[in-house]
Amino acid sequence: MALITQNPFLFSTKLSQSRGLLHYFPKRVSFSSSLLSIRCFSAVSQKPLRYAVLGAGFAGLSVAWHLLQQSSEESNFCIDIYDEVGIGGGASGMSGGLLHPYSPKVRLLWRGEECWKESLKLLNVAEDARSSKSLDMVMPKTGLKEGDFIVRRRGIVRPMLSVKNMHMMNDNAQNCIASCRIESIHKDAAQKLVPELCVPLDLAFHMPEAVNVNPQNYLEALYLACKTFVKSKCSLDISCKELNLHKESVLNLLELAGDYDAVIVCLGSGAAFLPELSGRLPLRTCRGVIAHLQLPDHIREDYPENSPSILSDAWLAVQGPQTLYLGSTWEWKSRNFSRHVPDEEASKALAELLPKASAVYPAIKNWTVKGTCAGLRAMPPLTAEGSLPLLGCIDEFIGGPTECKYWLFTGLGSRGLFYHALLGKLMAQAVLSCNEDLIPSELTSWKHRVKQ
């Protein structure tokens, strides 16, 4: 989900100059200075298939990875990713990173087991790329540093704070999947996991296989995996594979007509502001502020290295023994894309978040706030299956020829990490085959409601 630090639709006038393959399209003679690319040229003269992915967050990079994976070995293939800010510059990069397959009522989410497994696969892809010996050779300017974690595998614990849904949630917990268990534990066991954890009703839910992801490190590593994959195909010398990152905005979707075989819009909340889609998507925007907290050096008792993160009315995403992220606020109908949080907004957010954190982890009083940041989420409508992202072919919204050229993948809301891998895979399959029927009808039904 891509977040734009300025208004994302103050568009570059140089876009038409910087787009394209000079090797195959000599009329394109100028490239943006912000373009990062890795190219594989071969003797094959076949015109490449060209795809534009708008957005470099969870949705966009998942689609790019799966397009590369599912493309023919023999085909010439180019993917151009457009994001004004760059990798993880939007709400995806600002998410809490707590990953598990359950709803707030501990019920398995839509296609929960499949989405969970596909997300874990992509996390492994990113970690493998990060640990590859070719890191410096492939991406010398990467923001990744030795020792920065991508996935923290310590589980998540959720104390019960209200009797209202306690029995239902306890029943739901019994129907968990084997690959992400839910253990109903009492206060003593919970406090062994997290010393000083508050468990007022003597019940907590522990998900030992749940993980905490560093979103920015993950997205950079996933992009690195895409580039490494392209580079590996160069050595085969049987086709041309290319991946480009353009740090630019797109004026409107029609301006890409004629340049690409398909355009996939993965802009998160930004999709609703494209001229062709404005007022036509059932999305609500929601700005969320998160706080970065650090434990001062003079406090001797660190957060235990093996202790889980905490999920409650506020979440505590633990990054290490002395650092964690606390979130998140919910400001509905906001149009503020900026990551920057003014002092007044920060004070208001902390006044809301810190009491919620103290209710489950009183030791938070010892931690110091180091800063705050924000992201603008695209929240999908509630359906019988839950709040599901919006996918599908959107040719009818564009007004051009109906040939499955334009596609939409948005509305990840607060569950981007959970849904992005499987849905990116399904979207890539639909785009490559030009067949929307490969996307589950639950994810495309929004179009019928819009038409009505």
Automatic annotation (TrEMBL):
Gene3D superfamilies: D-Amino Acid Oxidase, subunit A, domain 2, FAD/NAD(P)-binding domain. Residues 51-429 form the FAD dependent oxidoreductase domain. It holds the Pfam family DAO. One of its GO terms (cellular component) is cytoplasm. SUPFAM superfamilies: Nucleotide-binding domain. PANTHER family: FAD-DEPENDENT OXIDOREDUCTASE FAMILY PROTEIN, SARCOSINE DEHYDROGENASE-RELATED. This is FAD dependent oxidoreductase domain-containing protein.
